[in-house]
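Anyone up for a design puzzle?
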């Protein structure tokens, strides 16, 4: 199988290359793509020898090309979003790991779906922004969409055989989406105003990129995942329950009409869902250690606190509203998280910005790509304007 890894320099990208390197007979790395980290992409190119490397920044691409030439490597270098979409659809690629962060991953993920590839979907934002379009593109293109997000991959594994993307599994009653609760699970409400980006990014169970780490801290990550679950598994939001499970051992569960609940368990290591999706329907070695249940000893479950973590409620409301509301929610969140990481916005300001944007959002159908892109643009612009004003800047 010839694999393209989009977002190869990130946390998911690095884990993907680790799994691929364990199976050189089975997989070849065809394309590596990232935003601008040419130094790390150079190392990855020298190690994995892809046919093509794509960077978004032209200057970084230039530097990569010259370093590759000096090293005598044959990898061709291209740059820009159009090159990425072309790679996603190219005949030389069988599977695309969609691991770019944010709505920036949408065009290449859509292109891979339309072209009928095996799409290993880590980029949850593309589903949140354009879920029905992406699911429809995959169906028409004959693509196989396999979720990489650990919860959705767990749900996928617990679903009955013959599952179709976007359609409910036979006999399924509910989905139980587990959440670690993030680094501020026990932080009192008054203390949340003073938390720093470093504290927000110090996740107790998972090592991830900075954007998703902040999303985990606000519980927006679980909100985005709720929307993701509804789209992937054809469920109404009311049938997806969020359960806080601090040990992050049960990665999610599916409840059937007969009262059975199936769960997928494992150590919190993204190489498990990555290997599952690469090998599916077979199983391949991932490098993940066996789970020692006796050492873990306990599995705790509790309800999420929507008062301290309003982002989850905002996401549920957007899931229920449907249309372009999830696209607006996601865009406002991306802007607010970037502002928090840059020290321009306090932690409680993140859900406040999103709520203000959604209050002004005029919902409409998300049937065309132009409509969701317009909602995304509108929400980003409004969120930026709010951040520049006095109302939320001090939040
Ligand atoms: P990260 O920040 O570590 O990596 C992001 C990658 O995307 C980098 O390689 C970066 O260069 C690339 N990138 C960013 N913008 C780009 C652009 N415009 N064009 C091309 N490449 C671009 O993020 P991550 O933690 O690896 O997460 C990636 C995605 O996977 C996110 O959507 C995240 O929500 C999802 N995800 C991550 C984890 C995890 O454990 N890290 C778990 C579940 C889901
Ligand atoms: Mg997840």
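Challenge accepted. My sequence:
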């Amino acid at each position: 199988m010839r694999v393209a890894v989009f977002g190869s320099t990130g946390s998911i990208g690095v884990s993907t290359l680790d799994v691929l390197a364990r199976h050189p007979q089975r997989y070849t790395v065809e394309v590596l793509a990232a935003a601008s980290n040419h130094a790390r992409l150079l190392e990855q190119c020298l190690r994995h020898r892809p046919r093509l490397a794509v960077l978004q920044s032209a200057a970084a691409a230039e530097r990569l090309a010259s370093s590759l030439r000096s090293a005598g490597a044959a990898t061709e270098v291209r740059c820009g979003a159009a090159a990425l979409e072309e790679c996603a659809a190219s005949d030389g690629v069988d599977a695309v790991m969609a691991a770019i962060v944010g709505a920036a991953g949408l065009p290449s993920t859509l292109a891979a779906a339309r072209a009928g590839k095996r799409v290993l979907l880590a980029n949850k934002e593309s589903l949140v922004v354009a879920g029905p379009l992406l699911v429809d593109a995959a169906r028409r293109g004959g693509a196989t969409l396999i979720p990489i997000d650990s919860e959705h991959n767990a749900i996928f594994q617990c679903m009955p055989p013959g599952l179709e993307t976007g359609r409910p599994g036979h006999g399924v009653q509910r989905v139980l989406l587990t959440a670690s609760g993030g680094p501020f699970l026990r932080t009192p409400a008054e203390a949340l105003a003073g938390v720093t980006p470093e504290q927000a990014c110090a996740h107790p169970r998972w090592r991830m990129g900075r954007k998703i780490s902040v999303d985990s801290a606000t519980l927006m990550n679980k909100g985005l995942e709720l929307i993701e679950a509804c789209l992937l598994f054809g469920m109404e939001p009311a049938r997806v329950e969020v359960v806080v499970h601090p040990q992050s051992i049960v990665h999610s569960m599916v409840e059937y009409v007969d009262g059975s609940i199936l769960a997928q368990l494992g150590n919190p290591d993204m190489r498990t869902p990555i290997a599952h999706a690469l090998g599916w329907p077979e199983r391949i070695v991932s490098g993940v250690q066996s789970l020692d249940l006796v050492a873990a000893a306990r599995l705790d479950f509790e309800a999420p606190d929507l008062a301290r973590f309003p982002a989850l409620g905002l996401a549920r409301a957007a899931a229920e509203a449907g249309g372009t509301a999830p696209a607006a929610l996601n865009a406002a969140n991306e802007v607010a998280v970037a502002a928090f990481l840059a020290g321009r916005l306090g932690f409680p300001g993140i859900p406040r910005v999103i709520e203000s944007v959604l209050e002004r959002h005029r919902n409409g159908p998300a049937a065309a790509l132009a409509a969701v892109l317009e909602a995304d643009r509108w929400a980003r612009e409004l969120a930026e304007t709010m951040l520049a004003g006095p109302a939320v800047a001090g939040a």
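A detail worth pointing out: The pocket of magnesium ion (ligand 2) is lined by residues 149-151, 225 (CB under 6 Å).
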